[in-house]
Amino acid sequence: MTESKELTLKAGRPATLLEQRTHYCPGCGHGTAHRLVMEIIDEDGLRENVIGIAPVGCAVVAYHYMDIDMVEAAHGRAPAVATGLKRVHPDKLVFTYQGDGDLAAIGAGEAIHAANRGENISVIFINNICYGMTGGQMAPTTLVGQKTTTSPYGRNISTEGPPLRVSELLATLERVVYVERCMLTTPKEIRKAKEAIRKVFRVQQEKKGFALVEILSPCPTHWRMPPAECGKFIEEKLTKVFPVGVIKNTAFAETK
């Protein structure tokens, strides 16, 4: 008979991350991204001073997992809602959490104009190159040749154009001060994503202007591949179109 050993939990759940059964598909990156945001909120003591904006998309019920003040916005309108909240509550840290269908498609106008005005808000942009919630349709960020439910023969550059690179687009605007792209692949890259989120929060805390972090996130269900293969797909395919790293930084003297 083997002697039983008591297991010690080394890394527990952040206090601000609620203990809920997830509705996300196995291998989805939203759960990891949620945890990173909540870890930062706990570590930096922001829980009583933060307001999040939930999108329309897979993360439409993000407030079920985050024990903070949150507001639901109409599809694509999170930057407009965040603008209003920040102007009414300038002392609060206001962030939007949006997918590519929400931010890059129906919400492109809202994102561009909030960024162009230099609204002092933080945007967390989850890019999984498809519409996840509604059936895996082609999104503005879908890769050329990628098959989806609305592009069964693959995205055609002559009719649909190339993928929209939101981070590079917004980085051209004068009042955007920080833009970084990360990916949820290895533990090392996930740690980089966490620090990028912390930086866009810091930009707002220091009243420097508009900041966005884009996170390349897996969608095994609509990519039609096992979760274990998604990281390799991101590193070998997605980063060729969406290279990771700091895209614009006029907020800090250094980015380390």
Describe the structure.
By secondary structure, this protein is α/β, with parallel strands linked by helices. It contains nine helices and seven strands; from the N terminus they run αββαβααβααβαβααβ. The protein has helices at residues 30-43, 78-88, 100-106, 108-117, 157-160, 166-171, 187-205, 220-223, 227-241, and strands at residues 50-54, 69-72, 93-99, 122-127, 176-183, 210-216, 245-249. The N and C termini lie far apart (52 Å).
Give the strand line-up of the largest sheet.
Answer: 2-1-3-4-6-5-7
Percentage of residues in strands: 15-25%
Can you say what the CATH homologous superfamily is? Thiamin diphosphate (ThDP)-binding fold, Pyr/PP domains
Shape: globular
Mean pLDDT across residues: 94
CATH class: Alpha Beta
Q: Tally the helices: what do you get?
A: 9
When the domains are counted, the total is 1
Percent helix range: 25-40%
CATH topology, anyone? Rossmann fold
Describe the secondary-structure layout.
Layout: H1 30-43, E1 50-54, E2 69-72, H2 78-88, E3 93-99, H3 100-106, H4 108-117, E4 122-127, H5 157-160, H6 166-171, E5 176-183, H7 187-205, E6 210-216, H8 220-223, H9 227-241, E7 245-249
Parallel strand pairs: 1-2, 1-3, 3-4, 4-6, 5-6
Antiparallel strand pairs: 5-7
Helix pairs in contact: 1-7, 3-4
